[in-house]
Amino acid sequence: GGGLKPSDELTVPPAAFGLEFVGDGRQLAVGGQGAFAMADLETGKVRRAELEFEATRSLAAGPDGTTLAVGLGDGSVHIYGVDSLTEQGKPLQHPGRVTGAAFDPTGKVLITVATDGGLRWWDVDGRRPLAPAVMAHPGGAGISLSVAEHRAVTTMLTGDRVALWPLAVDDWVEHGCRRHDRNLTPDEARRYGVADAVQVCPT
């Protein structure tokens, strides 16, 4: 028939799980068992980075095309430089496999979802959570994630519900103030990413 046919094929790590265009779309990140690869779609050159036998579960490219977040089966997310394919800083640890990851439009915040059902916001430079985890889909064995503008979308792979979430930290500070019904303590303010504020919640 007249079906679509592949224009090119690349040799990538086995059990390829994640795919992510990087930067201007001339490179493609491919995750697999024990490694991930960066393929130049113009030259066909494929570079590999080994992952010590861990399987890639999610990939996310930073908006400027210089960084790549790699979520693994052990619940860790590692940030790599795209050009060097070397890890930058310490990993972000989760209580379950990371099934989805995406950078916000600034590239300074990474949003992740894991098999515990938790949706998390991370300060990329500081490698710390910006807010407490939100149980987006409690008990979800697998969750997909997409981010655009100032919203995130999550859905359970086996469910029938899609949830929209705000990305702005200010929205989560407001959520924390409503939840605690008082001004945040210094420790709580740090957890919500506003550690330098003297008065966080309205009086």
Features:
mainly beta; six-stranded antiparallel β-sheet; 203 residues; single chain; 14 strands; 2 helices
Which percent bin holds the helix content? Answer: under 10%
Query: How many whole angstroms does the radius of gyration measure?
Result: 18 Å
Strand arrangement within the widest β-sheet reads 1-2-3-4-5-6
- Class from secondary-structure proportions: mainly beta
Residue runs with pLDDT of under 50 for 5 or more positions: none
What is the CA–CA distance across the termini? 69 Å
Kindly state the mean pLDDT as a whole number? 77
* Beta content: 35-45%
Q: What is the H/E string? A: EEEEEEEEEEEEEEHH
- Using DSSP, what is the number of strands? 14
Overall morphology: elongated
Q: Give the count of helical stretches.
A: 2
The main pleated sheet reads as:
6 strands, antiparallel
